[in-house]
Amino acid sequence: MTKMNYHIHSNYSDGKATIRDYAKEAVNKVFDEIAFTEHLALRSGCSARKLYYSMDASKLGNYIEEIRMVQNDFSNLRIRAGLEVDYFPSSEPVLKEVLGSYDLDFSMLSVHWIGELCLDCIKYRRAFEVAVKEEGFDKFYAKYLELLEKAVETGLFNVVAHFDVAKNWGFKPSNDFTKKELRILEKVKDLGMAIEVSSKGLRNPINEPYPTRKIMEACASLNIPIVLGTDAHNLSELDYHINSIIDYARSAGYSQVAIFEKGKISYAPL
């Protein structure tokens, strides 16, 4: 069995602990492998307009160097360097340049924004709830899936983070989006990407892991690789419901997890 967490935020972005502190805690909690996935959120392809939770792109070299240095002090823990990258339409050129310029182990795509509304940012929750009340959730979910599909199609990423995070505040579509979801998953499969199984939803109003059950079963039927993550922003979240998502993945038929090193995928027992 491989105990992993592939979704951790340190104080390089909006996390509350250092890389070394997380590594110490991971050893204490008997993890085999962890990955740091700092937010990189650049609107309109301009680093000067990075969003408030994003790391500074100019610090990427220092970030990766620190991960490699900390790794040298923890022989019983594998530590990967990743990024959680926000996708915005027309951001492809700058993302291609940034992601191709650094020695990352993997990149994880996220769609957090629909226009000026953040889907899962607490400071935007009220505005999002008002918009859903006025326009219906289906409109937002359809737009979310459209953006997610475009992000996958870029071929710039290795992992899809929290696939249906648009449901974060407890909203669910009234119409059936199965065909659109499956089309995206088929593209994920074709591109050799993985899906994150995340416990993040278990501490939010949706109260379910991501991806939710129907999508999880579709991932399994397509043999799409998975990684496990808690979206940790502090030390207490490092192992948040980690056993729950291990059981969840196994219940869908998974027996292994994906491992990324320098962009290359391999597998380990779940």
Compact summary:
The chain has eight helices and eleven strands. With 270 residues, it is α/β, with parallel strands linked by helices.
Describe the 3D structure.
- This protein has 270 residues and is α/β, with parallel strands linked by helices.
- It has a single domain, classed as TIM Barrel (Alpha-Beta Barrel), CATH 3.20.20.
- The strands form three sheets. Strands 1-2-3-4-7-8-9 form a seven-stranded parallel beta sheet. The chain has a two-stranded antiparallel sheet with strand order 5-6.
- The longest helix has 17 residues.
- The protein is globular.
- The relative contact order is 0.15.
Poorly predicted residue ranges: none
| Secondary structural class | alpha/beta
Total of DSSP H or I helical runs spanning 4+ residues: 8
CATH class group: Alpha Beta
- The CATH topology, please? TIM Barrel
Distance between the termini: 5 Å
Strand order of the largest sheet: 1-2-3-4-7-8-9
Element order: H for helix, E for strand:
EHEHEHEEEHHEHEHEHEE
Number of domain modules? 1
- The rounded Rg comes to 17 Å
CATH superfamily: Metal-dependent hydrolases
* Residues in helix, %: 25-40%
CATH architecture: Alpha-Beta Barrel
Overall average residue pLDDT? 95
What fraction of residues sit in β-strands? Answer: 15-25%
